[in-house]
């Protein structure tokens, strides 16, 4: 009988219209009657924000959202009365917005005030968020301001419409059609970003095609900038360092060459003539084969400063990436530090060094990059990866707020305890002319933007943390779930828990205990820890990272090893250096650990490794169970799509577990503990079959 | 430290020579010193059995085995002394053999006695079995005789060397090379069969090519018969009922036609001239498109009796198969009974009706065929399938003794309680001129004979049960494991348990609760319960068997359904007819059960179904764990081969579970209970991908 009821409930509760996820967290579904009645009492008319394009957006967005949620038309007024929502420009406000319930004769009104219309827009989205979450808005007294000035998405989108590490379709930018033909998605994109406070976008891949700086493409970019501007989004471009040669026809791109410098200045002038609020350049130079100042015997500072000078008249910035490594170093994890620390203090003040969260490359777990806190005379910005290059593409659930938080909250000890990465990058510990944070976007032209419906949460949480890194992962997950699905706690609580566990699950079934880069060649989906390509760069082979042998597993980065530990401030350097104090979730990152080393669980390393992989698989299976219970809370389309993805996740978690354990077992030569599920894959077969890129 | 020890043990204990499984249970490995010393004291010389070819075999086999096991040469003697092993022909013995410890002056000797040398051979293998199992042979007093006269393997081998439903390579018979070139495997085959008491072999497929009766092929068959004869193995042939037309050039094969009858008599004469102990014919007629007497308006009895008359002068028998069904019947399970019961008493006395254990077709579980016990005036013989057509081919472990025992021990109630199938077919309840039992062989030219190392146990247990159906599955498993691997109880006990659970595991993850025939089209590997081929025979579609709909699942064979229950004797007919008394492991065979019907577990049918599938998967996973512990007890080759097969089994168990639950869920419209692992397969994808035959 119970089952019958569940069943009926399930089938009745499915809405009748199709759901493709395109509405993201901006769904504005009708609210329950009681909640709505309350909101209608508090807000029944609005005093618009002015006559700018942004003011028009605020008015349109709020009215449309309010009327959808409350099934009630708003009145418009220029006079503040009780039950008004008033958008006020107040130039005395330094930053951010206020949302306040204010008293007048006979009652109250709600005020959103800020010094400019973009901040008003943010305030408006804040209020809408509260309503979507069915929060009490009777007595509001909110002041919000963003922690980072520049909150930027990096799109690794190519000129041909492909996206490097993109798993949600093709690029959102139809370069061939621009500037003549305008996709409605450009505005939707800007709107989604504005709703979470993102205010900048680098349109093209860091592996940059010089053509993006051609007049033709700058015109296209200008068109996008025009569309994004009222939403508070500035555009930036990735630039190829050899553009003066490749595009300008010069014989060199040497940053100290006068003609080269002039070429960049002319280019900047050209860009700003078309895009007066152009944000600046993002540069990947002397990295993975890309050109850079070192090709001419110059330093990163020489290169960055040349560009900075060109942009400086227009208040543009240079985001210069620290993602550098060369093939011959015995420890890739040390190289960004080695290359950039000597340059500290040599960069112009409109240069900011963009540093990936970890010293290698967006692995499921890395320690933080030791440049943070160390490079004190140069502004640094974090680069997170939102697209799940190393966390299962858009096929697997990995809610990334916990990864971002782990880094933001990490204590560098650079100015004593409490010198978290958030603090060393937000200007509060070291003075910075610019503060910024970047995330490599997971968006594409898929209807639901991110491929996996639940991966929308990663776009969302990046924006929210860029605004306020003190938010918790759970808070953000809660917001997103309530807005994207339902506020019912029978849905929100279990799914929030699932989201919060999901990144650790991926770590466990892919690379627990500080392992890194066991990925399949090139496309990075699936395990290939045994990979050995004769003649290939050793630092592109998994064995470079896991260093397994008959003794044990892991990379010795202690003082008797590569000494990467010494790039960290004390006491971290000591903590990491000592196997007994090193956090176990990084133990194989910093130590070559004996197979029979006793872990805190009192298991040997080998046994612990087996348990961790099993934990990962078990978690994936649990996610399936949790999700299957959620059918009554949403449309069939999204439910089944996620259900299907979770099947892939479990299947591939087992694949990871089997591949890694079977491979490492050839060195550990120890049995898998009896409690652990046996492998179902065959090592020989796995080795003989190149993992297929599931999203080529 | 513990793990290190296990590890060292594991690697030291692997023998240095390769093991391909070709030695079956006749390995004769050196015995532990203490055991061997004892055996050497009891037997130090032998008095051979005579000068026949079989006597020579007995001598050679025993001496070679004894010397291998005990590392000690035997002496030969014609005089009985203490410590002799004496083979004695004693024509007063009616059947079987005696093994006895006999007293003489100054001590004892061991005697194996029988009325003929073939029974002596069986006695010799019995003694060797005791020694392989390290049993005490100090005081022996054994009398064994077989329960069935004819213990026969059926080979579904084709003239082109292929095997229908064969999963261990190609046919053992090299027809093209015979009779000139003789494979050593012919003798090895005969030896293996003799060692477990099998005394007959039908060389060719029941879907018989008429060419097998040509002079050319009879000469080939005669050569095999010559090789098998000293091992006590008679050859039989499957015959095509239209051979007179197809081979003899007659215009008809009508069994009442004089020329046809003469053709068969001439053919029998020709065969017996070359093979004086030829066993007889096996016939599949008017079944699955094969010709038969009904093509001429005659009955099965007309057809069988014509052949019986032809064979009668030579004491040959006809084994006429009752595996018949036509496309239009509403219940295939009833048809053998309907077609054969009217003919009871009409068959010649050298005809025996060969009846598959279940009324459908070798499913993982069926109730017994109701012809057993019902057809009381006609000899009946059981046909088991040793080859795992419906139980995972040679890729999955399914030890079949429990399936055979379930049938042999089933009570038909035909002469009141205790009328088991063993008793209604062994001549003890109904007088039978012939008693016999057949098993469809799982052998092929693979080095290890049966594809899966552990499938050798099915060949073995069929032979043992054909000799003595009172043996338990556990006894037989114990014998086989000790001879094939080791007598160490740390190996024998857990692996025996695994074998004993294995068939039920297959039932659970394929077709629990009495489900049947959900198999993939044609090749029968993998699930395809949704299969619906427009225009195809309905009784070849799974829906014919599972009859799922929104109400429930299962085939209503009660009196208000197809009334198949009434083909059983009371009280079975009543027990099966009543859903509350019907055994739950057959409930969906006999009833269309409501999805919410409460099972004994107090779960609904749907939930119970889910739990059963999960049980199957869990069992497969457990088998992997158990096996992984067995590495120290055997060679790497067999260990890893079975380990690999068990991986396939678990993988495919999950496939079965997912496919069936997802498919049935479309009708039950109920959630899978939370405790049950979620599907990892996608129904739509499963349906779109035709299951591949893994052993084409």
What does this 3D model show about the protein?
The structure is a homodimer of 696-residue chains. The first copy, chain A, has 696 residues and is α/β, with parallel strands linked by helices. Chain A is 37% helix and 11% strand. The first copy, chain A, contains 21 helices and 16 strands. Chain A has an 8-stranded parallel β-barrel. A 6-stranded mixed β-sheet of chain A has the order 2-1-3-5-4-6. In chain A, strands 15-16 form a two-stranded antiparallel ribbon. In chain A, strand 4 and strand 5 form a beta hairpin. In chain A, helix 8 crosses helix 9 and helix 15 runs antiparallel to helix 19. The radius of gyration of chain A is 26 Å and the shape is globular. Chain A starts with a helix and ends in an 8-residue tail after the last helix. The N terminus of chain A is likely disordered. At the A-B interface, helix 1, helix 19 and helix 20 of A face helix 1, helix 19 and helix 20 of B.
Mass-distribution shape of chain A: globular
Largest sheet of chain A: 8 strands, parallel, barrel
Q: Would you identify the regions of chain A where 5 or more consecutive residues have pLDDT less than 50?
A: 1-16
- What is the tally of helical segments of chain A? 21
- The multimeric state of the shown protein is homodimer
In total, how many beta strands of chain A?
A: 16
The chain-level structural class of chain A is alpha/beta
Question: Which sequence of strands runs across the widest sheet of chain A?
Answer: 7-8-9-10-11-12-13-14
Please tell me the overall pLDDT of chain A: 96
N→C terminal distance of chain A:
47 Å
Strand content of chain A: 5-15%
Radius of gyration of chain A: 26 Å
Q: Greatest contact pair?
A: A-B, 33 and 33 residues
Overall helicity of chain A: 25-40%
